[in-house]
Amino acid sequence: MDIRATTPEPADFGLPPVLPGDWRALPDELEQALRQRLAASNLIDEGRAIEMVRVLPLGFFEGWMLCDFLLGEVGPSADSELAALVMLYGPDGFTPLDDYRRIERHVELHGVRLEGVDLCLSFVRFAAAFGALGEAPHFIAQGDGDAIAPPDVALAATSPSVLDGVRAPEAARISATMICEDELHRLELRLASDGMITVLARETLGPAATVEAVRREGSMRYGPRERAEDAQ
């Protein structure tokens, strides 16, 4: 699917994206094709409507994009809750992201591009959000908009950085402050050229209250429907 004709994402999606980035809206004909392919994949409950779609091209997976589908809720929560499903989409169809072993298998089949700092950091951000560092997702803290830190933690200096001393077969050694289950952690990571991530050091810095309280279950995210209405 050629997504070069994308436009900026709609402002009223309702839930924050699972990852930061240049999310895009698809032209009508491409969005309709993607909706039909998802509906035919048996990956969502029958009869559940797809209300909106946004996509994020992934430089480290050539030809693949991250797809975020806003779904119509069913049952008693339909009037109060929003639900979104995130998956990879590319030449082989959809790859669910409810188990990190699926991502490892995806890397085995399709490879991963890790040339340069930006691709390394983007892949670590993606992998950490979907279970590479443990069962719970980890999110890189970017600043005061993402977390409330203890007084002695300077979030202004928490942007991830690639450390010196990288040697083959490493792609990078990365230092980053991450949010996991309402706590801030400082991690040093080894990223191998095959996409394998190893935790070299972890320090718990203290509690962190995330701004967006979105409930996650596998590839699904849930949030109050009032958030979309308040944004209008």
Q: What are the key terms here?
A:
alpha+beta; 4 helices; 232 residues; five-stranded antiparallel sheet; 13 strands; 2 domains; globular; six-stranded antiparallel sheet
Instruction: Report the sheet-strand fraction.
Output: 25-35%
Biggest sheet overview: 6 strands, antiparallel
Q: What is the terminal separation in angstroms?
A: 32 Å
How many alpha or pi helices?
4
Order of helix and strand elements from N to C terminus: EEHEEEEHHEEEEEEEH
Q: How much helical structure, as a percent, in the residues?
A: 10-25%
Number of domains: 2
pLDDT under 50 segments (min length 5)? Answer: 144-151, 153-157, 227-232
Shape: globular
Total number of beta strands: 13
What structural class do you assign from the helix and strand content?
alpha+beta
Nearest-integer average pLDDT: 79
Rg over C-alpha atoms, rounded to the nearest angstrom: 18 Å
List the helices and strands and how they pair.
Blueprint (H helix, E strand, L loop, with lengths): L6 E2 L15 E2 L2 H12 L10 E8 L7 E7 L9 E10 L2 E4 L3 H11 L6 H13 L9 E2 L20 E2 L7 E11 L2 E10 L4 E11 L7 E3 L2 E5 L1 H5 L2
Antiparallel strand pairs: 1-2, 3-4, 4-5, 5-6, 5-13, 7-9, 8-9, 9-10, 10-11, 12-13
Structure description:
By secondary structure, the chain is an alpha+beta fold. It is 18% helix and 33% strand. The protein has helices at 28-39, 100-110, 117-129, 226-230; strands at residues 7-8, 24-25, 50-57, 65-71, 81-90, 93-96, 139-140, 161-162, 170-180, 183-192, 197-207, 215-217, 220-224. The strands form three sheets. Strands 3, 4, 5, 6, 12 and 13 form a six-stranded antiparallel β-sheet that branches. Strands 7, 8, 9, 10 and 11 form a five-stranded antiparallel β-sheet that branches. β10 (183-192) and β11 (197-207) form a beta hairpin. It starts with 6 loop residues before the first strand and ends with a helix. Residues 144-151, 153-157 and 227-232 have low confidence and may be disordered.
